[in-house]
Model the fold of this input.
Amino acid sequence: MNVSPDFAASPSDADTLERLRLRLGQAADAEGLLDVAYTTVDSPVGALLLAATPKGLVRVAFDVEDHDRVLETLSKRISPRVLRAPKRLDAAARELDEYFAGQRQAFDLPLDLSLSRGFRQLVQRHLPDIGYGQTRTYGQVAALVGNPKAVRAVGTACATNPLPLVVPCHRVLRSDGTPGGYAGGPEAKLTLLNLEAA
Amino acid sequence: MQPFEKVVEQHGGTVLRVCRVLLRRHDAEDAWSETFLAALRAYPDLPETANVEAWLVTIAHRKAIDVLRARKRQPTPVEEVPEAPTALGLPGAADGDLWQAVRALPEKQRQAVAYHYVAGLPYAEIAEILGVTTDAARRAAADGIRNLRKSYPGAIREGAPS
Done:
């Protein structure tokens, strides 16, 4: 015969845990243990995952990229000390809101570009030179970074941009004027181009 | 290695219930916070093969002892106001009474009950946490349950997992 006390979770446990988890994020940040803070926000192009290191915004990910997989990658490539801690992302979330409301044309956020290296990072550093509402072809961007033959490599750099929206890879199109690929899907790219054309 | 947030998601509830068996409500929440902060600090060095729940309960065990020691050093003049017994038959409403009954157990019994019945750890793991033999850990849990049956008969149901 087995006997045990009934240690069922009480209904208030969920609220308590939510409060404790937010408190943990803040304590971890204060102790310098919050290597990656993240949150998710809603947007006209679907739920966005925003992640930041102490250095700055390190990743913006679309829903179609699978946020759980993105977090696993961040855990592997940056640090497993990953916590949901919305506070560090407040400024990024606010600027994205303003952008989608048509009230912001450029982002003013500290960025951590450590997820990309070499030529890809070089391209990503130059993408914000393409102003709001403007577009360039992959070839033009290749010329811009001083390597006019590296059209395909520019395509790869755009496709692997860890900070879409904020680093505006959506402003780079194919030379025939069609949008080309996008991490958030072709519809998301069109939504952004239309938003900026308005 | 999975993101630490997943560890909190998967084990946060169990660790909270363990802390509540060991400590009063506010102390339990402090011990929970201390446990996960310490775990976060050590997490990158945790071997991939480690039993994460046993690891967390081991940390919670130490943090609870720290809290209890601190309490003994600075005795509080006012005890926590006891919760009024409820007349309503709401599910979970009796939890507070059960926690109180378990917290009234002698320390080793309380710990063994918490780690086996709340955290679901095998006695071999509990023996390591408590620094006793596996048999002693099993006996402490059995004694705890026997005492609990006397002090709080409503809390015991039969046929639950051993």
Summary: The helical segments of chain B are 4-22, 25-42, 52-73, 95-103, 107-118, 123-130, 134-151. The mean pLDDT of chain B is 84.
